[in-house]
Design goal:
The complex is a heterodimer. By secondary structure, chain A is of the alpha+beta class. Chain A has 13 helices and 18 strands. Chain A has a seven-stranded antiparallel beta sheet with strand order 8-3-10-1-16-15-17. Chain A has a five-stranded antiparallel beta sheet with strand order 11-12-13-14-18. In chain A, helix 6 (219-227) crosses helix 7 (240-252). By secondary structure, chain B is α/β, with parallel strands linked by helices. Chain B has a domain at 94-235: Pectate Lyase C-like (3 Solenoid), CATH 2.160.20. In chain B, 13% of the residues lie in helices and 25% in strands. Chain B has three helices and eleven strands. The longest helix of chain B has 16 residues, at 203-218. The chains are: A alpha+beta, B alpha/beta. Chain A binds chain B through residues 38-39, 41, 268, 270-271, 274, 316-317, 320, 322, 335-338, 340-341, 348-351, 353-354, and chain B through 36-37, 39, 55-56, 58-59, 75, 77-78, 94, 96-97, 113, 115-116, 139-141, 159-160, 163, 168, 188.
């Protein structure tokens, strides 16, 4: 079994960093590494990771599954599973390098797949059905195959993470050899949950990836709420729920990005009281309908998808977050110095307000399978949200 | 001759060690260049020295210090002046969150905006009255749990024209000291047990004194700063929460 050492509670903060190029140009891995290493003391060597977007352009139409396995047997089981339920285009070990300080790492392999559908379903198969099926398959592997986890499952992107300091994990996964149009990075200081390979950030689902500084005190509520909709929390860490909440609110229910952020970090009732009538109605509805998706507790998160990078704080800003921009590149990090380490003279530096997301989307049409979640989406895409009317509200409130 | 040091190749612990060694040798002036994310600079130093910092110092600049005067040409990060006791920090840029946390003496002058929870837990005793002057705007929880000392919020040099001069929960749990605001705040922004008052008695004199020094630090016109009226936020009894069981 995984050697999960439960440690006494420690008090400190993690470090996060993210970069996005609005025109989709590729940024070398070295940059994000420099930014996260500037915040070295924010971690304690029990976890670090990177998410990179745009790293598999030749296989951009396939879901890139990064699988972490404790043994060859576990990997064989994953492969049998994939054989049965997916079309496999290409597979290879994820290139790694021996690092002295990293002892007994798991095995890492990547598979480029598309889900199989049986004949009846195939007639109706569209992109969103493929995504749904992929989510099911990932959940099933993580829940049922012992000793193996899918740590990322998006198209043209991947997560690389493990137990170590960021420079060690970067060396292990040879991060310097990748170039990406969006990067996020994490330097972990686990406080409440074990520092193990699966618990390192980023957490991902499809092309959502999330890095987080803080703690999700509402983990239990969020977990139970998500389970109603088929999401399984298997990675023993609070942050995992955020990836699934994003998928649920934005991809499944079609909420525009900003509103989804307001569901996760809602305004206070006293603020809602002072809003105009229309706004008041909207935010009251959001708070009632998505009570189970509210993330309580201190957090600063960065999340990314194929097309955008978003920074969000809890509504009383209990964790730091700084944003900056220069030209077509936008930066976000726990500390301003992390940004200045890679961009000494940004045009603009600012501290985002609590609960107000910083949303940076790329220009239209610059990358394959590009997504934009700024606006409410068309009826057929957000039909799940429309169907909500038939649910009893008490159920949704978690 | 001041000690002029390019610190970019060094870890913060090395920089602090070098500073301490030179203070022991009697050095009184320091110039640090290439500062970026170096933590705890001048932390715990109790010598009358002066320093110029170029760049973005890391967390807890000047924490627990008793004496140094630090001028920063750049922005400061979270926790600057944490529990400082004497001395002064002058920031020619913006500041992060929890600046002047539990401050018990000395001054912090910031040209621009500050983040959340600035001046929380400030206290005063006898002749020790800590002062924070903020040239820009402040986030939520300014002066939370304040037991003494003075915060002056000007709202003049800001990069956030869309934001109010102070955030929510202004002075929540405050039971001593005073927050002066240039302009107005909504009563709904204030914590329970607080009221905005018009200036009275010695307030104007006191404000003028502190602002004169602030203006000298940044080369500003005092008359410009005093053009607008100030309000004073302070608890209306000595124990405003004596009868409050829970918030």
């Amino acid at each position: 079994m995984w050697n999960i050492a439960l440690r006494a509670k420690e008090i400190s903060g993690c470090g996060i960093a993210g970069i996005i190029h609005r025109k989709g140009e590729l940024i070398p891995g070295e940059m994000i590494l420099k930014a996260i290493c500037c915040q070295y003391e924010r971690g304690n060597g029990l976890g670090a990771g990177f998410a990179a977007y745009g790293i598999y352009p030749e296989l951009a139409d396939y879901y890139a599954l990064h699988v972490m396995a404790q043994s060859k047997q576990a990997l064989v089981k994953v492969e049998e599973f994939l054989q049965k339920f997916t079309f496999l285009n290409f597979q290879e070990p994820i290139p790694t390098k021996k690092v002295k300080t990293i002892k007994n790492p798991p095995i890492f392999k990547r598979y480029f797949v598309r889900p199989k559908f049986d004949e009846v379903d195939a007639e109706f198969c569209d992109l969103s059905a493929e995504d749904d099926r992929m989510v099911q398959l990932v959940m099933e592997i993580n829940e049922t195959i012992e000793g193996a986890y899918v740590i990322s499952s998006g198209k043209n992107m991947g997560a690389f993470k493990g137990v170590g300091f960021p420079d060690e994990i970067a060396e292990f996964f040879r991060i310097n050899e990748y170039k990406a149009f969006i990067w996020t990075a994490h330097n972990r200081f686990p406080t409440n949950t074990p520092g193990w390979w699966g618990g390192a950030h980023p957490f991902t689902l499809l092309d959502w990836s999330i890095v987080h500084n803080g703690e999700i005190s509402s983990y239990g509520t969020n977990k139970r709420y998500l389970e109603l909709f088929g999401y399984k929390c298997t990675l023993l860490t609070d942050t995992e729920v955020v990836a699934y909440v994003l998928d649920f609110l934005i991809r499944k229910h079609g909420l525009p990005l900003e509103l989804a952020c307001k569901a996760m970090a809602p305004p206070f009732w006293m603020e809602i009281d002072e809003m105009s009538e229309e706004e008041r109605e909207l935010y009251t509805a959001i708070r009632i309908l998505y009570g189970g998706a509210v993330l309580n507790g201190p957090f600063a998160i960065l999340f990314a998808y194929n097309g955008g990078l978003v920074g969000l704080n809890d509504r009383v800003k209990l964790r730091p977050l700084v944003a900056a921009s220069k030209g077509d590149i936008c930066y976000m990090a726990s500390e301003e110095s992390a940004i200045r380490a890679i961009c000494p003279d940004p045009e603009k530096v600012w501290a985002p307000k609590a609960g107000e997301p910083v949303i940076v989307e790329m220009e239209e049409g610059v990358i394959p399978n590009q997504k934009s979640y700024l606006n409410v989406r068309s009826k057929e895409v957000s039909e799940d949200a429309l169907r909500l009317g038939s649910f009893p509200l008490s159920l949704l409130a978690g | 001759m001041p000690l002029d040091l390019e610190v970019s190749p060094f870890h913060y612990s090395q920089v602090n060690r070098i500073i301490r060694e030179h203070i022991l040798k009697g050095e009184k002036e320091f110039i640090l260049r290439g500062v970026n994310g170096h933590r705890y600079l001048f932390g715990g130093i109790s010598a009358k020295i002066s320093a110029q910092i170029y760049g973005t110092p890391g967390l807890d600049l000047g924490s627990f210090m008793r004496g140094p005067e630090i001028r920063v040409f750049g922005n400061v990060q979270d926790g600057a002046g944490n529990t400082m006791d004497e001395g002064k920090i002058i920031v020619h840029g913006m500041a992060g969150d929890v600046v002047g946390y539990a401050m018990r003496g000395g001054k912090i002058h910031i040209y621009g905006d500050v983040g959340y929870r600035v001046g929380i837990h400030m206290k005063a005793y006898m002749e020790k009255v800590p002062v924070i002057v903020i040239g820009g705007k402040a986030g939520d929880f300014l002066g939370e749990y304040m037991a003494g000392g003075i915060i002056i919020l000007l709202g003049m040099h800001t990069i956030y024209p869309e934001r109010p001069i102070a955030g929510l929960f202004l002075g929540t749990g405050m039971h001593g000291g005073a927050i002066y605001v240039r302009g107005k705040v909504k009563e709904s922004q204030l914590g329970l047990g607080l009221k905005p008052y018009a200036l009275e008695g010695d307030d104007e004199k006191l404000l003028e004194n502190y602002l004169k020094e602030y203006c000298e630090d940044f080369g500003l016109q005092l008359s410009e700063v005093l053009k607008e009226d100030f309000i004073k936020i302070t608890p209306y009894t000595h124990r405003p929460y004596g009868k409050l069981y829970a918030y």
